Every structure is written in structure tokens, then in C-alpha cells.
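REVIEWER CHECKLIST
Item 1: Sequence provided? yes
Item 2: Single chain? yes
Item 3: Sequence as submitted:
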Amino acid sequence: MLRCDGMPPAHRDPKGPSRAWPVLVALGLVALLLVGMIGVDVLVSERVAQRTAEIVENSQRSIELVDDLRAQAHRLADDAADPARVREIVERIAEDARAYDPLANDRGEREEWNRLQRQLEQLQASARGHSSDLVSQVHVIGQSIDRLVTINRTSAHEQAASIRKLHRQALAADATAGAITIVVVTAVALVLLRLLRRERTLTDQHIALLSERNDELDAFAGRAAHDLRGPLNPMRGYADLLLAGGESEAEVRDMARRIRVAVDRMSRVIDDMLDLSRAGRPEAGKSSPAEVAADVLTDLAAELSGAKVEAELTDEKVACTPGVLYQILRNLISNAVKFRARQRPLELSLSATLRGAEIEIRIEDNGVGMDKESAAHAFEPYYRGRTDREVPGHGLGLAIVERATRALGGTCTLTSAPEAGTSITVRLPRAA
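Item 4: Structure as written out by the authors:
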């Protein structure tokens, strides 16, 4: 079956035009993932830097202060006999205590710090009272300071573990985002490859179609030149004879008649070519298949003499002018008349039925029909199907039908078999 909607079925993309939005969405998702990964890395880096600075600063400051408190306790025990030195050391201890107090935030550190403060107060009181137990008190204070150092070290280790955990979480997040990104990029790459293959296939098909069209145009030009040259040859021959002179009046009239026949033949060729050209630019309008078909049958009444014609046509309007529809129906019916069978009367059936948003016009005959190869080329310009007799015309009738139907946004199909007749179905848009 041959289609007349402008492109063979194999050249059509059933999925419609390529759509780029899935690729754009995927690329946007990749960009968001990358931005998210960078954001997470920056946030984690800032938190790690902040926490590391706090740990280092607190640990260093805490150790410095407790070491200074240890030194001041020893000095206080050594210089207990000097009231001025005792006052100086007590002030230094009070200053260190004020600095350390905000830092005592780790688990168990506050209790140990409070205990150390009480021990320092007792040491200060013993120093003012010149007690002999200062050495043992300093020893107890040293043990308390050692416990504070241990608490700070333990806290530092815990903070370091927390930082390592934070790093691991960041790495896990990066790995997850990276895996998702790889999956999305792979999917985008596969989609792009598929689209590129489709585009390459369509391009190859279009190139093949253009090559086929060029071949058809070359063949069309050759056939047109042949059909136009045919009438010119006798015209030139008779004109040369007339110029030579010597012919009788009857011979001159006969030559003039033959020239007139050749001119008429050339005019028909030119008119058919113009009809084919105009068929690609039909005007918009409305027409009734029933009314137009009645006009065509009336105009072709002489050619249809002796034929059995059945018509069942809808009054629904077709979206084209009556002149265009007349041209389509006249060419189809004339084609059935030209290829009628000699051994049986012509039977012609016309129908027009509403099919959704289209009107289906079908013309069936019981003529000579055509073989598979002829049916495949039936709508090509200047193609003449194989037959056992000379058929008038130039092979443009069905080509005009094909071009006009396609230009109107419709389709046409042809089925035929030798000695079984031909059926042509034209689908045209319904008028709004």
C-alpha cells in the first residue's frame, strides 16, 4: 500500500520530535548535586576548623592555667613566711582561677575544679597561718591538677573522635552524591547517545528521501521534456513544409489542422503541469462531497455512458474549496474511466463517510487494475502503469490528487490487483 502524506512510513519518527527537557532536567540535577557537594564540603570544613580551633585553644589555655596554678601552689608553700609574696601569689592564683572558670565545661571537670579551688583556698589560709602542713596540701593540689589535665586530654581525644566522625560523614555524603551524579551523568549520556542515534538515523533517512525526490525530479524533467518535445516535432516539420511552399490549399489546411492538434496536445501537457504545481498550494474553504461529486458526474456523463455508478456521499463539509475537491474527484473518476476493462461494463462506487475529524472519500472500480509495482509508483508524476493498450493522458492525474491531498493535511491510499479493479481512499480534514 502506498501512502501519499508526504513521507513514507519508514521515514516517520513514531515518537514525534525529539524532546530535550529530560536531558536539561538531568543536567540541572547534576549541577544541583555538585553545588550541594561543594556546599556540604564548605560547611563541614568550617565546622571542623571551628571545632579544631576551640579544642586547641581550650586545651592549650587549660593546660597553661593549671600548670601556672601548680607553680603558684609550690611558690606559696615556699614563700609562706613572706606576707608580701603571699599576697602576690594569692592574687595570681585568683587571676588564674577567674580565667579557668569559664573553661571548665567538660564532663567531670567542673566538680574537680571546684575541689581544686577549695584546696587552693585551704592552702592560702594555711600559708597565712604559717601551718606546717603546706607540703602535703601542695601534693593534694598537684593530684587534683593532674586529674584536670587528664580530663582535658580525655575531652580532647573525644573531640578529635567527633571531628573524625564528622569527616567520615562528609566523605559518606560526598560518596553518595558522587554516586548519584555518576548515575545521572551516565543516564544523560545514554539518552544523548540514543538521541544522537535517532537523529543520525533520521538524517540518513531524510538524505535518502531527498535523493529519491531528486531522482523523481530528474525523471519528471525528462518525461516533461519528452512530452513537450513530442508535439513540437510535427509542428516544426509542418512549418518547414509551409515555408517551402508548393502545397495545395487542401494540403495547407491539413497541415494547419495537424499543427493545431499538436498545439492542443502541448497545451494539455502545460495545463496538467500547472495543475500539478497549483495542487501543492490549495486555498482554504468548505465544500460538500455530495454536491461536488454530482457536478463531476454530470460533466463526465458522456465518458460514463454505459457505466454503473453508485454514490453514497455525506453532506458534511470538507476543509477545502469546491474547486480543489472537484479537481481531486474528477481526476480519480477520470482515471477509473481511462483504465476500464474492455470485456465488462464499468462499475464505479463513490462513498464519503465521516471518520472522526476527517471525511473518508473512497472510489472503487472494476477496471483493469494494476500490479504491485505499478501500484507502488501510481502517484508519481508522469508514471504510466502497464497496460495492453494506449491510454490517453500524461500520467499526472493521480500525482495531482496526491499533492493536493497532502497539502490539505490529508492522506490517500491505493490498493489494486490485475483484472480486479482499483480502490483509492482519500482522507481529508473535516471543515470546522
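Item 5: Key structural point noted by reviewer: Residues 21-187 form one domain.
Item 6: Recommendation: ____
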